[in-house]
Design brief:
heterodimer; A: six-stranded mixed β-sheet; B: seven-stranded mixed β-sheet
Amino acid sequence: SYVLTQPPSVSVAPGQTARITCGGNNIGSKSVHWYQQKPGQAPVLVVYNDSDRPSGIPERFSGSNSGNTATLTISRVEAGDEADYYCQVWDSSSDHVVFGGGTKLTVL
Amino acid sequence: EVQLVESGEGLVQPGGSLRLSCAASGFTFSDHYMDWVRQAPGKGLEWVGRTRNKANSYTTEYAASVKGRFTISRDDSKNSLYLQMNSLKTEDTAVYYCARVGSIFGVVMNYMDVWGKGTTVTVSS
């Protein structure tokens, strides 16, 4: 089955740029989606199809995908961005949704 | 307002059964694929399964961890999604979310763009 690998944690100072990676075999050939989950809340879609943003999501959130790594980039990080972030793809070989293990973003 | 509301929370003994429901509003439920996703305490998101829409024969897919024990169904006339859980195990303890699968101009995009707040299932003796 397809596996997505995320770093368990990323730390960044306010105002800096956070980059959260999602590794998978030839992930560049798939569409990657990203979710933000704050404690006690449901996940929220922040980036879909590698780099598109749903309405209401700040332009500070962006995504890229190439080769074996997809990246969620959060520019000008704010305290309110502190959350867990999950990448997700559709594995067409198994007809299954696959989530990464999640990355906890800490704003120092 | 587009909304999903889960219900059916409960405490059940190992080996028992429970049925979760998800009420949809604010969008054309029958057009969409729908997913169930769960999250065990302190753990990450785990996809449970999917039901496709009528145009795709309401076919279903399940994660290996629940296949044969869980059944996803829907009633488009009631704008409702269901998860029947049988032969429950302690490792099924989790918050269960229903989620709408996104689409653009009718093309399924395989991301989840609307989520419910979740309902808690505890399997314990």
